[in-house]
């Protein structure tokens, strides 16, 4: 299985901050990398697919980059609704695997 | 707009079989891959497996010996059966559709939409 490792596991930030979350794959996955946001008690929601493509309806303050084994999710200016847990997921090969999550807190 | 809804018992006894149904509305169940994903309380996400409308299924090797996913196209439903459950199988279970996008270098897949999730506890 491809292991996905996120860092940090949690971070504290303020409204308006720019934050970056990192995801590392245990082997090269090209750009087959997705990012999800999960708010408490809700299902995950896709933000970014294919490493950098913004899902329709997702605000442009979210952006993704990377290729191979190292990827980042950036939120350019944190809004109240962005305080949530973020997961990366590889779609290079099955079994599809997720990172352990990064919780963004105030 | 496609919507998914999980249904099934919220409590299952150890060693018994966990069975859930996902009902798809607002769109066709055909020509898509349909997945089950679970999340133990306070933990991360684990892909369980998926099925295509032809009936072809692919399972996570970590659960393969205990999992069956099946499809009922006449009812726009797919189901999950997980045998010999233990407390480690306590989780929120989500159903989701695999969505695809094709670039020149290949197909890209992600999960969207998702059901709201249903908590299944394994306890005597």
Structural class of chain A: mainly beta
Total of DSSP H or I helical runs spanning 4+ residues of chain B:
0
Helix proportion of chain B: under 10%
Span between N and C termini of chain B? 39 Å
Number of separate helices of chain A? 0
Give the helices and strands of chain A as they follow along the chain. Answer: EEEEEEEEEEE
Summarize the structure.
The complex is a heterodimer of chains A (106) and B (124). By secondary structure, chain A is an all-beta fold.
Describe it.
The complex is a heterodimer of chains A (106) and B (124). Chain A contains no helices and eleven strands. Chain A has 106 residues and is mainly beta. Chain B has 124 residues and is mainly β. In chain B, strands 2, 4, 5, 6, 9, 10 and 11 form a seven-stranded mixed sheet that branches. A four-stranded antiparallel sheet of chain B has the order 1-3-8-7, with no helix packed on it. In chain B, a hairpin with a 4-residue loop joins strand 5 and strand 6 (57-59). The A-B interface holds A 1, 30, 32, 34, 36, 42-46, 49-50, 53, 55, 87, 89, 91, 94-101 and B 35, 44-47, 58, 60-62, 94, 96, 99, 101, 103, 105-106, 108-112, 114-117.
Features:
heterodimer; A: 106 residues; mainly beta; 7-stranded mixed beta sheet; 4-stranded antiparallel beta sheet; B: 124 residues; 0% helix; 57% strand
What is the fold's blueprint, element by element?
The complex is a heterodimer of chains A (106) and B (124).
Chain A: E1 4-7, E2 10-12, E3 19-25, E4 33-38, E5 45-49, E6 53-54, E7 62-67, E8 70-75, E9 85-90, E10 97-98, E11 102-105
Parallel strand pairs in A: 2-11
Antiparallel strand pairs in A: 1-3, 3-8, 4-5, 4-9, 5-6, 7-8, 9-10, 9-11
Chain B: E1 3-7, E2 11-12, E3 18-25, E4 33-39, E5 46-52, E6 57-59, E7 67-72, E8 77-82, E9 91-103, E10 106-114, E11 118-122
